[in-house]
Every structure is written in structure tokens, then in C-alpha cells.
Design brief:
The strands form two sheets. The protein has a two-stranded antiparallel sheet with strand order 1-2. It is about 45% helix and about 10% strand. It has a single domain, classed as Orthogonal Bundle (Arc Repressor Mutant, subunit A). It starts with a helix and ends in a 14-residue tail after the last helix. The radius of gyration is 18 Å and the shape is elongated. By secondary structure, it is mainly alpha-helical.
């Protein structure tokens, strides 16, 4: 599974927003500030934040001192919600989807032999990202969903 720039940039920008909002005692943060700090195109951020606003993750404020604020506390804003808000699917399969149903990735529309493996991996990734908040990212408190045991070589 590969996360596109939409998903990555949205998470970067929301994390930056949360940090600046905490430091600025809740003041709105201008997208131009985030764009400069994160080295992301302002016009691209405007597109992403329009989607984030429509999904209720940010609140916009107009006028002098305007910008954006998180709609909820950073501890209640989860990474999966951000990624999904910018239309980034959390899937690991190549399958085409029609009305939410996988049609399959093979030429005839059948599912490949490893479909269920990739589908489950996508669910695991979604579950993990749904358990990580923006506050967790800011604090650097990213723990695996369960301890990983790596076999010795």
C-alpha cells in the first residue's frame, strides 16, 4: 500500500496546525504559514483543507487573524479520519470497487489468489491509523498495535 501525497500532506499539515494552535493558545493558523513551514504548495493545501473542512475536521475563520483551527482536540483527531477526508483510500488491493464491492484485479474481474491477504492488510492499516491521534504524533507516542517479534537471523 502506498499513501499518496494527498494523504501524507494532509497529515503533515494537520499536525503542524495542531502544534501551532497549541502554542498560540487556540488562535487560527493561516495556511500560508503551514505551507511555508512544511514546504507544501499553498494552492494544494487550500484544496486539501476545503475537503478537511467539509468533513468537519477543521473550522475556518475569515478576516484579519483568520485561518484554520482543529474542529476537535488533537487527541480526538485521528490519522485515518484525515486520510479518508482527503479521499485517500486505505486499501492495499488493486481491485476495482463498484458501490463499495471489490470487482477483482484480474483481467476478467476475478479476485486474485492473494486478494484476502491484501484486503486484511488494508484493514490492519486502517485500524492502526484509526488508533493514532494527531496528539500521539506530536508527542512521538507511536507504538505498534501489538508488540512485534522479529526472528533472529
Amino acid at each position: 500500500m502506498r499513501l499518496s501525497t494527498k494523504g501524507r500532506y494532509a497529515v503533515m499539515a494537520m499536525t503542524d496546525l495542531a502544534k501551532r494552535q497549541d502554542e498560540g493558545e487556540g488562535r487560527a493558523v493561516a495556511l500560508a504559514e503551514i505551507a511555508a513551514r512544511q514546504q507544501i504548495s499553498l494552492s494544494y493545501l487550500e484544496q486539501l483543507f476545503a475537503r478537511l473542512r467539509r468533513k468537519g475536521l477543521v473550522i475556518s475563520a475569515r478576516g484579519p487573524g483568520g485561518g484554520y483551527r482543529l474542529a476537535k482536540a488533537s487527541a480526538e483527531t485521528f490519522i485515518a479520519d484525515i486520510v479518508l477526508a482527503v479521499d485517500e483510500p486505505l486499501r492495499a488491493t488493486r481491485c476495482n470497487f463498484t458501490k463499495g464491492q471489490a470487482k477483482g484485479c484480474m483481467a476478467g474481474g476475478e479476485r486474485c489468489m492473494t486478494h484476502d491477504l491484501w484486503e486484511e492488510m488494508g484493514r490492519q492499516i486502517h485500524g492502526y491509523l484509526a488508533s493514532v491521534s494527531v496528539a500521539d504524533v506530536l508527542k512521538g507516542e507511536l507504538r505498534p498495535a501489538r508488540p512485534l517479534e522479529i526472528a533472529a537471523e
